[in-house]
């Protein structure tokens, strides 16, 4: 005789109860007999009972047993399919992932107790912390090189991009972890750092300093571009002047441009470029008969 699953048993028992209720006093006797057979079938191990084997348990006592209920019981009397197993495993894994995700939320009240008792559960946080730390430091160094050894305005644009990326990774670091060293993680992945308050503040100050430098350098280049346009325009005005008044006006603009070149901060890259252009501008101005005072 084949075996019976709990689900199939419950379906059959419900129908047995209905059939017994219509049989009067005899129904209780039939009910007890059929349920004993079904219980015996459920307690056995082996292959799953066929539809005929299940039907044999009640066909004499309840000839009007619902065929629909019987088919539902047969359908339920099967081992879990591959899809069901996948769903079960997926649900189990999904629950586990959900718990890990919850424990790794950026809230000290959640993470800190876990870090002390079961730090392995914070592995995603350690990996993220390690990666963001390394990237932040590397990008700060790259940005610093681009800004302090710039040879063109484009270097400051790239340096600004690197600084913003560094700030993004720095912001992603768990500040509540300051001073905490994940020994288990670092024993496997060889961390060579210790994330301290001083180190965190130093990185932030470096980015702040570079932001100020970039702002000054870009402003200086903007100023240089405007002065160059004024200087070029003044030269054209002077060359195209038709009378002394026009030449005088052009000379004033020319001299003004020379004065503005002197005002560009000398510590900036634009200032260094302005010093070179200043000599040529004064020479040309004097050659045209003006009196440069720069």
Report what the structure shows.
- With 294 residues, the chain is mainly α.
- Among the domains are: 6-76; 213-287.
- Helix content is 74%, strand content 0%.
- It is built from 12 helices and no strands.
- Helix 10 (197-240) packs antiparallel against helix 11 (244-263), helix 10 (197-240) packs parallel to helix 12 and helix 11 (244-263) packs antiparallel against helix 12 (269-287).
- It is rod-shaped.
- The model is unreliable at 82-90 (pLDDT under 50).
The number of strands is 0
What composes the largest sheet?
none
The portion of residues forming beta strands comes to under 5%
Outline the low-pLDDT stretches. Answer: 82-90
As a percent range, the share of helical residues equals over 70%
Q: How many separate helices? A: 12
Class from helix and strand fractions: mainly alpha
Rounded average pLDDT: 77
What is the overall silhouette? Answer: rod-shaped
Tell me the distance between the termini.
112 Å
* Series of secondary-structure elements, N-terminal to C-terminal: HHHHHHHHHHHH
What gyration radius follows from the Cα positions, in whole Å? 43 Å
Topology:
Elements: H1 6-21, H2 25-43, H3 51-56, H4 67-76, H5 82-103, H6 108-117, H7 123-148, H8 153-172, H9 183-189, H10 197-240, H11 244-263, H12 269-287
Helix pairs in contact: 1-2, 1-4, 7-8, 7-10, 8-10, 10-11, 10-12, 11-12
